[in-house]
Design goal:
This protein has helices at residues 16-34, 48-55, 60-65, 84-93, 138-155, 171-186, 194-202, 213-219, 231-247, 291-294, 309-318, 339-351, 364-373, 384-389, 410-414, and strands spanning 38-39, 45-47, 67-70, 76-79, 103-112, 124-133, 161-167, 252-253, 264-273, 281-288, 302-308, 329-333, 356-358, 378-382, 391-396, 402-406. By secondary structure, it is α+β, with helices and mostly antiparallel strands. It has 2 domains: 16-170 and 230-318, BirA Bifunctional Protein, domain 2 (2-Layer Sandwich), CATH 3.30.930.10; 329-414, Anticodon-binding domain (Rossmann fold, 3-Layer(aba) Sandwich), CATH 3.40.50.800. The chain has an 8-stranded mixed sheet with strand order 1-5-6-11-10-9-7-8. A 5-stranded mixed sheet has the order 13-12-14-15-16, with helices on both faces. A 3-stranded antiparallel sheet has the order 2-4-3. α12 (339-351) links the parallel β12 and β13 (356-358). α1 (16-34) packs antiparallel against α5 (138-155), α1 (16-34) packs across α11 (309-318) and α5 packs parallel to α9 (231-247). The longest helix has 19 residues, at 16-34. It is elongated. The two termini are 48 Å apart. Belongs to the class-II aminoacyl-tRNA synthetase family. It is found in: Cytoplasm. Keywords: Aminoacyl-tRNA synthetase, ATP-binding, Cytoplasm, Ligase, Nucleotide-binding, Protein biosynthesis. Pfam families: HGTP_anticodon, tRNA-synt_His.
């Protein structure tokens, strides 16, 4: 019989792989709490319209990558391809759009996209995500960026990672800039790729993000948004840069960062690295001031970012920063009569916060071999003589030393 394997684009997280992913999530959870973010959890699947409205019917995610199916009740549901749209839906459906704003939200969990698997990218992948919903001020943009930089620092992977920032301007800025891009790219239309010709009709800003070599040569001469910024939009972006400097977050301007949907505005940013090959973005986000309205709520300014946990984990692995597995204490009863006392000691250790294990079977030699296999830092040996004397033999498996310790003192010695 052929053994089953994980579905293509998925993987099992075991050992070091799981510890790295867990470390990423816990670090982000801890750091975001310092900034006042509270954790939310939303369903793993939603009404398909949540994502078709939130991501745009013509986006690659909606048209090519979503896991969408009809349930037994005839409703179209989709496994979430990202977190933000579901969080905006939750804000509206739980009646939170008018109370206690802004809401500062932290989120982590699996996402699903049917795309070509590659290094650090899977069809079931995991994200961490923070959002500030209900704040229109540029300080909110700077603070979410600062939180992201803080997460990368705490993970020890900020070296070699660069923050790139751009402004998308306000509605008037984007309208004027769009006209300038249409004029420029129309003059080069015959040299554009087929995809970029389609984008020219629908969303010319997306051409700036083209990976086609021919397009990139044309994009190099395209106008930037700066001459088309309104005074308000320019002042907004200037405040973001000023706040980033105060937060101590290094950055560089990248006028080619774009977003594909009209409700994105003002700040757009990415943390990029050259340590992951061509796919170098590890965290990205920006301001979106119309998505809550798409979910049926009132106009609500929002800003946030998402980061792929698999890519952050790869950076941990590349930097030799895989968290070590906890080293347990092995409790070893010698003889059937010692098992009860050994179990009492085992639970006393666990109550004291000590990771402790007991082998289910085997003589002293085999139990000691298991203690070494699991990387135990110490072994506690209990036989009839030790029980009669009210002690355990504490063997330091690193130093190779051994001493008798009163049973009541053992948890305190090892905690």
């Amino acid at each position: 019989m052929t053994a089953f394997q994980p579905v293509r684009g998925t993987r099992d997280l075991i050992g070091d792989d799981f510890r790295r992913m867990h470390h990423v999530a816990e670090t982000a959870r801890r750091v975001s709490a310092l900034y006042g973010f509270e954790e939310w959890s939303t369903p793993i699947f939603e009404d398909t319209r949540v994502f078709s409205r939130g991501l745009g019917d013509t986006s690659d995610v909606v048209s090519k990558e979503m896991y969408t199916f009809e349930d037994r009740g005839g409703d179209s549901v989709t496994l979430r391809p990202e977190a933000t749209a579901g969080l905006c839906r939750a804000l509206v459906s739980n009646g939170l759009t008018q109370t206690n704003l802004p809401r500062k939200i932290f989120y982590t969990g699996p996402m699903f996209r049917y795309e070509r698997p590659q290094k650090g990218r899977y069809r079931q992948f995991h994200q961490i995500d923070i959002e500030v919903m209900g704040a229109a001020e540029p300080l909110a943009d700077a603070e979410v960026i600062a939180c992201g930089w803080h997460v990368l620092q705490e993970l020890g992977i900020s070296d070699g990672t660069v923050l790139e920032v751009n402004t998308l301007g306000d509605a008037a800025s984007r309208e004027a800039y769009r006209a300038a891009l249409v004029a420029y790219f129309t003059s080069h239309r015959d040299a554009l790729s087929q995809d970029s010709r389609l984008r020219l009709e629908k969303n010319p800003q997306r051409i700036l993000d083209s990976k086609d070599d021919g397009d990139r040569a044309i994009v190099a001469g395209a106008p930037t948004i700066d001459p088309y910024l309104t005074p308000d939009a320019a002042a907004f972006y200037g405040s973001v840069e000023k706040h980033l400097a105060r937060f101590g977050v290094p950055f560089r301007r990248n006028p080619r960062i774009v977003r594909g949907l009209d409700y994105y505005s003002h700040t757009a940013f990415e943390f990029v690295t050259d340590r992951l090959g061509a796919q170098g973005t590890v965290m990205g986000g920006g301001r979106y001031n119309g998505l809550v309205e798409e979910m049926g709520g009132p106009a609500t300014p929002c800003v946030g970012w998402a980061a792929g946990m698999e890519r952050l984990s790869l950076l941990l692995e590349d930097g030799g920063r895989t968290p070590a597995a906890p080293r347990p204490v092995a409790v070893i009863p010698v003889g059937d009569g010692a098992e009860g006392a050994a179990l009492d000691l085992l639970q006393a250790l666990r109550q004291a916060g000590v990771v402790a294990e007991v082998a289910y079977r085997g003589n002293l030699k085999r139990r000691m071999e298991r203690a070494n296999r699991i990387g135990a830092r110490a072994a506690l040996i209990l036989g009839d003589d030790e029980i009669a004397a009210g002690v355990a033999q504490l063997r330091d498996l690193d130093a190779g030393t051994q001493e008798s310790v009163p049973l009541a003192e053992v948890p305190g010695r090892l905690a």
